[in-house]
Design a protein that fits this description.
This protein has ten helices and 15 strands. The chain is an alpha+beta fold. It has a five-stranded mixed beta sheet. A four-stranded mixed beta sheet has the order 4-1-7-8, with helices on one face. A four-stranded antiparallel beta sheet has the order 3-2-5-6. α8 links the parallel β12 and β13. The chain is elongated, with a radius of gyration of 22 Å. The N and C termini lie far apart (about 45 Å).
Length: about 325
C-alpha cells in the first residue's frame, strides 16, 4: 500500500484543530526491551505526520515503565532511539504491557491490554482492506478514523472521503483525524477540476520570490516533490522527457519541494537535471503551497490550463504524455 512515505509520514496542522473528543485519562505502560538491559525508551505523540517525544523512561534490567495522564484513546509511539521511527501503539485508559523488539522496525514487538491497538494490529495484517467495510464494522473506534486519514485519504475523492466520514460514530467528529479530513475535503473541493488554481508565492533557490500565476499562459504542471522522496525521484525522468518534448509547444512545470534541507533540495534539482521553475519554503509537510492544494502524498501534481483553470490531477508517465499530446496537438502561440 503506497503511503506518503509515511514510512517517515494533511499537511494540515493538528494544532489548528480545536477540541479533541478524547478525555484525559491515566495509562500505565509496563514493558521490556529485547536485548537491552539499560538505556532509555521514549514515549512519543503523533502530530502532523511526525512523532514528538513526550517523555522518556530508564531501562533497568531490561524493563521500563511509564505512568502518564494523556488524551485517550490516541495514537502514540514507543522508541528505543528517538530519532528513528517508533512502534505505533494505540493507548487506552488502564494498563498496557509491551514487549519491545527494535529489530525490523519493531515488527516482532507485542502489545497487550489495549483493544484499540488489537484492532490496529489486526488491520495491519489484513490485505486489500475495504475502508468502508472496516468503518462499518468498527464505527465507534478511533482506529478506522486514523486508517482513513493515513492510508486512504490520499487516493479517495473528496466525495468518497465525505461518505466514509459519515459512517463514523458522531462522537468522533472532533477527533484530530476526522477534523483534519473534513478540512481536507473542503480544500480538495476548492481545488478540484474546473476550479481556478489558487495563486501563491514561493522562494526560488536563488532567494527570489515568484508567483505561480507568473507561469500562467501555458499548460502548466504544478508538481509537488522532495529530494528525499524515492517515488518522486523515480518519476522525475518522465517529467524531464515531457518537458523536453512539449516545452516548445506551450508546456511548463512549476515545482514545489517539500524538502527541509536546502542543500539536499538543490542537489536533487542538479542530479535529476530539472531545468524548470523551482520554489520551496523548506517546511517539509508544513509547506504552505502543499496545504493550499490539499497535498496528502507525494509525488503529486496539478495540471493547469493557460487561463489558470485546473484540468487534471496526478497525471504521471504515459498518462501525462497522452494528455499533453492531446492538448498540444496544435502548439500554443508564443507570447511576446
Amino acid at each position: 500500500m503506497r503511503r506518503i512515505l509515511t514510512i517517515a509520514a494533511l499537511s494540515l496542522l493538528f494544532a489548528n484543530v480545536a477540541g479533541y473528543a478524547q478525555d484525559k485519562g491515566n495509562v500505565e505502560i509496563a514493558g521490556t526491551v529485547k536485548g537491552q538491559n539499560s538505556g532509555k525508551v521514549y514515549l512519543q505523540k503523533f502530530d502532523n505526520k511526525m512523532f514528538f517525544t513526550l517523555d522518556s523512561a530508564e531501562v533497568k534490567d531490561g524493563a521500563f515503565k511509564f505512568n502518564k495522564t494523556l488524551k485517550l484513546p490516541e495514537l502514540y509511539g514507543l522508541a528505543i532511539n528517538k530519532d528513528e521511527s517508533p512502534l505505533y501503539i494505540f493507548l487506552e485508559k488502564g494498563k498496557v504491557n509491551v514487549s519491545l523488539d527494535a529489530e525490523g522496525y519493531y515488527k516482532n514487538s507485542v502489545v497487550t491490554g489495549s483493544a484499540s491497538n488489537d484492532l490496529f494490529t489486526s488491520y495491519k495484517k489484513q490485505k486489500d482492506v475495504k475502508i468502508e467495510t472496516f468503518i462499518k464494522e468498527n464505527p465507534g473506534s478511533l482506529v478506522p478514523a486514523y486508517v482513513l486519514y493515513r492510508d486512504f485519504s490520499y487516493r479517495l475523492s473528496p466525495e468518497e472521503i465525505r461518505q466514509n466520514l459519515q459512517l463514523l460514530d458522531p462522537k468522533l467528529s472532533n477527533t484530530p483525524y476526522v477534523a483534519v479530513l473534513k478540512d481536507l475535503v473542503n480544500t480538495l473541493t476548492s481545488v478540484g477540476i474546473g476550479k481556478k488554481a489558487p495563486d501563491f508565492e514561493g522562494t526560488t533557490p536563488e532567494g527570489k520570490s515568484i508567483k505561480l500565476s507568473a507561469s500562467f499562459g501555458k499548460y502548466l504542471l504544478l508538481d509537488f516533490w522532495a529530494s528525499w522522496c524515492g517515488p518522486c525521484r523515480r518519476e522525475n525522468p518522465n517529467l524531464v522527457k515531457a518537458y523536453q518534448k512539449y516545452h516548445d509547444k506551450g508546456f511548463d512545470i512549476f515545482a514545489v519541494s517539500l524538502d527541509k534541507n536546502k542543500e539536499a533540495w538543490l542537489k536533487g534539482i542538479k542530479d535529476d537535471q530539472l531545468s524548470w521553475t523551482h520554489v520551496s519554503d523548506l517546511a517539509f509537510w508544513n509547506s504552505a503551497p502543499a496545504r493550499l492544494y490539499g497535498v496528502r502524498a507525494i509525488p503529486a501534481n496539478v495540471l493547469i490550463d493557460p487561463n489558470g483553470v485546473i484540468i487534471g490531477r496526478n497525471l504521471r508517465g504515459e498518462d501525462l504524455d497522452k494528455k499533453l499530446e492531446e492538448l498540444l496537438a496544435t502548439p500554443l502561440a508564443k507570447t511576446p
